[in-house]
């Protein structure tokens, strides 16, 4: 079993930046090498959507609405989502997801999910 803990959410003005972190814990450290991690978000009244993901070969996938503004990175059992040029439309609860099966990219198939961290962007 893997537990995911997000942090770094908050309130910023339009054009600002935030850095979200997700740390995985649970199995012995050797298993972390095979975790593929991703970020999703869910705005009030909307469905959860994929934001960014890292695959087993280190390749990164981004949703079109964040390309050029967000950067995902992963170091073993920690994922970071650097968010720049934030817009009010980015306001949402941001969730970390992970799985030992890779290739989900921005689809919802991940087995493990965090509780989320809120991001609010004001105009």
Number of helices: 0
What is the rounded Rg? 14 Å
State the end-to-end distance: 40 Å
Average pLDDT confidence is 93
Strand-residue proportion:
over 45%
Structural class: mainly beta
The percent range for helix content is under 10%
The sequence of SSEs as H and E is EEEEEEEEEEE
Report the sheet with the most strands, covering strand number, pairing sense and barrel closure: 7 strands, mixed
Number of β-strand runs: 11
| Poorly predicted regions | none
Write a brief structural summary.
The chain is mainly β and 123 residues long.
Key descriptive features of the protein:
123 residues; mainly beta; seven-stranded mixed β-sheet; 11 strands; 0% helix
Structure explained in plain terms:
By secondary structure, this protein is mainly β. Helix content is 0%, strand content 50%. Strands 2, 4, 5, 6, 9, 10 and 11 form a seven-stranded mixed sheet that branches. A four-stranded antiparallel sheet has the order 1-3-8-7, with no helix packed on it. It is globular and about 45 Å long.
Question: How does the SSE layout of this entry go?
Answer:
Elements: E1 3-7, E2 10-13, E3 18-25, E4 36-42, E5 49-54, E6 60-62, E7 70-75, E8 78-83, E9 92-99, E10 112-113, E11 117-122
Parallel strand pairs: 2-11
Antiparallel strand pairs: 1-3, 3-8, 4-5, 4-9, 5-6, 7-8, 9-10, 9-11
């Amino acid at each position: 079993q893997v537990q995911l803990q997000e942090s770094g959410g908050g309130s910023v003005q339009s054009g600002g930046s935030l850095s979200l972190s997700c740390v995985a814990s649970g199995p012995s450290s050797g298993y972390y090498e095979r975790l593929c991690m991703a970020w999703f978000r869910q705005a009030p009244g909307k469905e959860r959507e994929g934001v960014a993901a890292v695959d087993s070969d280190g390749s990164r996938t981004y949703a079109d609405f964040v390309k050029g503004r967000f950067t995902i990175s992963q170091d073993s059992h920690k994922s970071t989502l650097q968010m720049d040029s934030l817009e009010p439309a980015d306001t949402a609860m941001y969730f970390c997801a992970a799985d030992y099966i890779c290739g989900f990219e921005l689809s919802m198939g991940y087995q493990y999910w965090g509780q989320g961290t809120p991001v609010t962007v004001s105009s």
